[in-house]
Backbone:
C-alpha cells in the first residue's frame, strides 16, 4: 500500500508504508546508484582548471555567427537554448543551406559523453568545436586562418582572448577558440530529479517514474543507457533484434560507424545517445525519424530488446525519462552581448 | 572652466562652474528636450492594453524557428539578442539562403518607429510580423494555413494561445501570431543615458557627449534624427547633397521608396533610421555598406548636409551616439524554453 494520508471527518489518518514495497524502493535506489551516476556539481572538467574568463569567452564564441562562411551560422544555430540545445529538425541545416547528415544532439551535458557525435568521430567537445570551425557544413570556411581573420576584425575580442589565455604568445588561434567553446560547454550541466534521487532522495522520483525506472532496468534499457549521461558512454548497433529502418520509417539507411572505421562489424553502430533532457529534444534517433518520445521508447524496446511494450509500460518509462529533464543553465538561457561589428558576406 | 577638483597638498580646492558654460549646458538641455523625447516607461503601446500572457506567447513565437518553411529561421535569426536585435550582416539571409534586399534594422524600440522597414511598407510591428509569416524570404511558407499547421503540431501552444487571447473562438491564427509577436516587441525598450539626460540629469551625458550633441544639432543631424527614436519618424532621401553610392561604395543602387510608390519623387527615399543602440548595430545604412560608426557619421554629414567633419567633431558626435546605447531588456537577453516538438522538413 502506498504512503498515503486521508482526512476523514476532521481526523487525520496515516496509513503506514507497506514494508515489502519500502524494501523494493530501497533496492531500486541501490540498483540505480550502481547503474547511473549523478551529474558533477559544477563543471565537467578533465583535470585542467577552467578559468572564468575562458568560459565566458567560449560563451561569446558559441553565440557568434560571424566566424562562419556567410556570417549567419553559429554553434547556437543547431544548438539553440530555446530548444534545449537542439534545433527541432530531423537533420540540421548548416551554412548555405547545406544539410547535416544527422540529427543535432544536445550540447547540454555533452562534455560528459565518452566521445562525441553519432559516429563517435569527435574525441571531446573541444575536438568537436575545432573540427566544426572549418567543416564544410557547420562553417564553410576554407581554413583556420579565415576563421581567425574574422575575429581579428571584431574589436573587443583581442582583449578577451588575452584574459582567457594569459601568458600565451598567439592567443587568437583556432585551437584556443575550440578550447574556449569547450570550456563553456563543460559548464552546461543540467541536474534533474534523477540526480536528487541518486543522491538519496527517494521522493525526488514520482511513484510512476520509479515504476518506469524499474522497467527501464528490467527489460534491459540500462544495459546501454547507463552512467552519468544515462547513455553517451558506449557504442551499440541500432537494430539488434530487427532492422531499425522498417520500424522508424527512415527515408535513407545510415551505415553508422562502419563509414568511419570501414569495419563491417560497425555496420549500423552509433554512439548510444544520452537520455538527459530527452523529453525536450524531439525528434529522435540519429536521423530524427521519430517524432514523439513514447514512440521512440516503443521502437527501442522492440528493435534493441525484442520487447513489446503496452501503453502502461510505455508511459511509466516516459515518466522516468521526464525525470531526466533539468533546468536550462542560466549561462545558456541568457545569451551574451557580443562585441559589435559587421562581418561576413559583403552583399550591399 | 570645467567643474573640476584638485587635491593639492592635502587641501581640497573646488573650482566653481563657469557661469557662461553652465548657461550653455542648460540651454542645450532645453533644446534637446524640444527635439527628442525620452522612451516610455515600460511598454510602447498603442492604447490597447498588453496582457502578460500575450507578451510571453509573443516571446516564444519570436524565438521559434519551426513556423518557417524548413523550420530553421525565426524572428531571432535576423534579430539576434547577442547582436542587439540585428545580425551583423550587410544584408540578412532568409530561408533557403535567400538574400534579404536590405540590412536588418534592430527590433529594439522598433515599435516606436512611425512605420517599419526601410521603405516604410510596414505599418507597425504587428503588420511587419504578419507579412513576414508568409514572406518568401523571411518564411518561405505558401500561406497562413501552413504556418498555423506547424504550431498546431506542437503540443503546448494551444493552451498558451487560449491564455493570450481569452474569449476568442479561433485563437491560433496568423493574425494572432502577429499580434502576440508585436506585443512582445512593444516590450523591447532600451532606456539609455540620453533618456536620463532628457529627464533632467545633465551629468548623464559626459562632457564630450554633450559637445557631440551640440554639433549633432548645429550641423543639422537632428532635423531628421529627432523624436523618441532619434530617427524612425519620417522619410528622407539618402543623398541630399550628393549621390550616396559613390561615397558608401555600395555595390548596387537601391531606389528606395520609389519602388513601392512608383513616384519619381521617392527615388532614394528611405525611412530615417532610429539611432538608438547604433553603437551596437554595425554595419550601417539600408545596404550595410559601411562598417564603422565614425565612417557612417562622416558620410551622413557629407551626403545629407554638405558638411565635412574633422576627427574631433566625428568622435564627439560618436560619443553622443554611444550615449544612446541602453541595456538589453532581460526578456530579450534571456530566451524562453519552447514547447518541445520536432517539426519542419522531414529529411531523415
Residues:
Amino acid at each position: 500500500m502506498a504512503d498515503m494520508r486521508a482526512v476523514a471527518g476532521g481526523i487525520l489518518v496515516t496509513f503506514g508504508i507497506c514494508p515489502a514495497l519500502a524494501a523494493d524502493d530501497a533496492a531500486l535506489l541501490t540498483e540505480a546508484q550502481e547503474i547511473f551516476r549523478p551529474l558533477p556539481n559544477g563543471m565537467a572538467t578533465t583535470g585542467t582548471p577552467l578559468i572564468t574568463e575562458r568560459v565566458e569567452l567560449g560563451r561569446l564564441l558559441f553565440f557568434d555567427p560571424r566566424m562562419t562562411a556567410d556570417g549567419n551560422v553559429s554553434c547556437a544555430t543547431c544548438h539553440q537554448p530555446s530548444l534545449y540545445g537542439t534545433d527541432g529538425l530531423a537533420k540540421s541545416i548548416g551554412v548555405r543551406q547545406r544539410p547535416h547528415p544527422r540529427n543535432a544532439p544536445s550540447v547540454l551535458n555533452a562534455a560528459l559523453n565518452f566521445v562525441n557525435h553519432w559516429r563517435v568521430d569527435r574525441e571531446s567537445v573541444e575536438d568537436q568545436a575545432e573540427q566544426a570551425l572549418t567543416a564544410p557544413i557547420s562553417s564553410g570556411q576554407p581554413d583556420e586562418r579565415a576563421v581567425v581573420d574574422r575575429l581579428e576584425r571584431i574589436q573587443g575580442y583581442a582583449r578577451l582572448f588575452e584574459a582567457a589565455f594569459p601568458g600565451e604568445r598567439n592567443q587568437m588561434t583556432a585551437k584556443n577558440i575550440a578550447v574556449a567553446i569547450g570550456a563553456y560547454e563543460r559548464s552546461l550541466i543540467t541536474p534533474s530529479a534523477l540526480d536528487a534521487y541518486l543522491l538519496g532522495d527517494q521522493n525526488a522520483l514520482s511513484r510512476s517514474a520509479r515504476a518506469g525506472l524499474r522497467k527501464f532496468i528490467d527489460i534491459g534499457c540500462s544495459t546501454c543507457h547507463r552512467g552519468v549521461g544515462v547513455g553517451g558512454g558506449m557504442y551499440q548497433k541500432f537494430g539488434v533484434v530487427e532492422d531499425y529502418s522498417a520500424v522508424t520509417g527512415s527515408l535513407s539507411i545510415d551505415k553508422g560507424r562502419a563509414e568511419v572505421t570501414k569495419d563491417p562489424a560497425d555496420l549500423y553502430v552509433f554512439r548510444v545517445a544520452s537520455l538527459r533532457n530527452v523529453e525536450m529534444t524531439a525528434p529522435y534517433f540519429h536521423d530524427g525519424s521519430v517524432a514523439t518520445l513514447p514512440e521512440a521508447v516503443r521502437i527501442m524496446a522492440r528493435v534493441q530488446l525484442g520487447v513489446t511494450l503496452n501503453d502502461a509500460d510505455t508511459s511509466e518509462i516516459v515518466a522516468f525519462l521526464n525525470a531526466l529533464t533539468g533546468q536550462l543553465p542560466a549561462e545558456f538561457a541568457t545569451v551574451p552581448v557580443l562585441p559589435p561589428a559587421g562581418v561576413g558576406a559583403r552583399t550591399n
About this structure: Residues 206 and 319 of chain B are 8 Å apart (CA to CA).
